[in-house]
Amino acid sequence: MGLTNEQQSVLVGTVLGDAYLQRTGVKNARIRLEHGADQHEYLKWKVEQFPQLFSGPPTKLSRIHPLTKSTYHYWRHQSRTSPLIGVWRKLFYPSGKKKIPPSLSRLLTPLALAVWYMDDGYYYAKEDTSYLYLGRVSAEEAEIARIALLKVFDLKATVYDKGRKGFALYFPKNATHELHRAIASHVHEHFGYKLSPHLEAS
């Protein structure tokens, strides 16, 4: 059981973003998807991309934030365990912790970048600029991401250290428009607010 090119792109984007590849044996793993209560349709779309791996409905859960003590509601869906996902886990979790692989430039497509941006991207409307949050990766991994976007899409981003939020890639106005044009056709309708309204005029 293999993955189509489109499925590989969705998987790459969502692993770089919010997904977790959970080890379930020596060679097997499964995909764990978690999204906020208002992103049910987006999670459903992701699940539909892998009919051979997911079945049944997602589960609605809640957790209490340890600091604010507020209750957070979210959706979770987990795939069946598979040696195929185990192979991808070895790529992204070589030592048990998620890393941005050195081979990223060979994995990125417009669809993969769109899913990554939908998961972890932020559009700052006031300045018409964007961020792609990388999380708690190393400075070397952040540089791998920056170079990959430059090499594959000719996107010029700057690595920012956002403190407790980890590293992020910053896209100034022109680069934001180039980024959004590259991914717009793949962005789910739920995330239209993450795209600049000024693309046609630029």
Uncertain spans, ≥5 residues at pLDDT below 50? none
According to CATH, the fold-level topology of the largest domain is: Endonuclease I-creI
Largest sheet: 4 strands, antiparallel
How many domains? The number is 2
Strand order of the largest sheet: 1-2-4-3
Distance between the termini: 44 Å
Q: Could you say which structural class the secondary elements and strand pairing correspond to?
A: alpha+beta
**Global shape:** globular
Mean pLDDT: 94
Number of strands: 8
Q: Would you list the SSEs in sequence order as H and E?
A: HEEHEEHHHEEHEEH
Tell me the number of helical segments per DSSP (H or I, 4 or more residues long): 7
Q: β content, as a range?
A: 15-25%
Helix content: 25-40%
Task: Identify the CATH class of the largest domain.
Answer: Alpha Beta
Q: What's the quaternary structure here? A: single chain
Query: Which CATH architecture of the largest domain?
Result: Roll
